[in-house]
Specification:
homodimer; Tetracycline Repressor, domain 2; elongated; DNA-binding
DNA sequence: ACCTCCTGGCTAAGAATGTTACCTTCGGGC
DNA sequence: GCCCGAAGGTAACATTCTTAGCCAGGAGGT
């Protein structure tokens, strides 16, 4: 029987598909192995265990979000950039619920953690949004936290769908973007609409 | 041997202590049983299983947050109310990390779900904050979403502590509160400082 | 006081899963 | 063609959730 040609990457991608289907809590080594046409113990040749696999899913997801943000922010600034970032983050959370959950549950340990580096790229995109508003460096640092809390928090509220309808969230999101955009413009040294 | 006097409530409280110590993912029936001086299968006389127990922890946590918010908002309005809500939510997330995680992971199924009712009380507190700003009903509805995303999102970013120091988060939170407070005051029909 | 019955806790056992130990075989380098 | 490391397989073990079935304890009626 030929080798399956596994490596950590293919296993992680298969695992990411699994969590998107069965939820992050439903991840099992057996399901991942099945998807790859392989037996569960074979996975341990490439990942150290389920915890490791979970971390790798989180790194993959944060990296993908970072990529998506970078693409979406090309050539946009101000309110358009805010909108693009919000809808990108939200779409990712909806299309890949398991992966997105991983980004919330798994936290980086040390600054060398690949997860940390992946997050830095996301933060860089958030910074790019703020750069367009021309606010000073200290405000930018604080606003970054607000932005992350807002974007992640909003995508988080989504699955708790019992409280709000899809449309209501859509409207709320657009309203919130207007709210934040206005606040940021007022902070700006050179208001774009004085 | 005397009866232990278990019921769903005591089991849930014990389980809540367990998750705060070992993390939500580390919850096992055995740990809960140990804490109560009882064998694991006995728990099944009062809760249907681990999933049920997880839901009950979430309900407990959301209820506690609701109570804490209600207390903290007594006699405060405007910016003070915002600050009180943020620090209350954040303190809860830090003091009871396992329980707080449960509020993020578990989602209500139907509108009769006790979890849904518990969330309604939290939303009621958020509404109370906004009420003080005198903004119209539609804006209030949208702002509620913003508030929930912000408060939960901020408490969520906290454990990902590799990226920001404690003080930095503190400052960012105060800055964000100022930001939101100003935005809300500008929405107000009767600006408090015209 | 005693009997009865249900409740609540226990032990034992089964099923699912994560993980390790060890074996086998593929496939490239000499 | 041989050798050896790496990749995958099988078997087995440990942990944990959960169910089945037993037994005691105590509340309530007589």
């Amino acid at each position: 029987m030929p080798r399956a040609g596994l490596d950590a990457g293919t296993i992680t991608r298969a695992a990411a598909e699994v969590v998107d289907e069965v939820g992050y809590a439903g991840l099992t080594m057996g399901l991942v192995a099945d998807r790859l046409g392989v037996r569960a113990p074979s996975l341990y040749k490439h990942v150290t265990g389920q915890a490791d696999l979970g971390r790798r899913i989180a790194v993959l997801a944060v990296t993908e979000i970072g990529d998506a943000l970078r693409d979406a922010l090309q050539g946009r600034s101000g309110r358009q950039a805010l909108e693009a970032a919000a809808s990108t983050t939200r779409r990712y959370a909806r299309d890949f619920p398991g992966r997105f959950a991983a980004t919330l549950y798994v936290t980086a340990a040390d600054p060398q953690d690949p997860l940390h580096l992946a997050w830095l790229r996301v933060v860089e995109s958030h910074s790019a949004i703020l750069r367009g508003y021309g606010i000073d460096e200290e405000d930018t640092r604080h606003a970054l936290l607000l932005l992350r809390a807002f974007l992640d928090g909003f995508s988080l509220v989504e699955p708790a769908g019992d409280m709000h309808t899809e449309d209501e969230i859509d409207l709320g999101l657009r309203w919130s973007i207007t709210f934040i955009d206005r606040g940021l413009r007022e902070l700006s040294d050179v208001p774009s609409s004085p």
